[in-house]
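WARN retry 2 of 3 for item q-0093 after timeout on previous attempt; input resubmitted unchanged.
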Amino acid sequence: MWTELHWVLQAGIALMLVVGGVFALVGAIGMLRFPDFYMRLHAPTKATTLGVGGVLVASMATNWAEGRYGLHELLITLFLFVTAPVSANLLAKAAMHLRNRSKAPVPEDQPRP
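OK item q-0093 returned
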């Protein structure tokens, strides 16, 4: 059953959607623009996770305002925030095991491996 939501709640949900969309867009641009595997790995694990999280929080707020529990969205959010860092860590370890070199500049005071 659809009910009209208060304008303040609508504005908050719209803000969460816009913020989530901006984070997802920044993560996607980072995937395209970064020159290196390790830098590309950073973009989806940080920015895109926050982007999807913002959209899911907006969905939870909409369900809560309509009198329903947002259990599905809450579980998706929890699984996303737990699995994204773990999978990124495993990908980085696999790349290090395969001796994938980074193209990032090494600071002057650090010895080159």
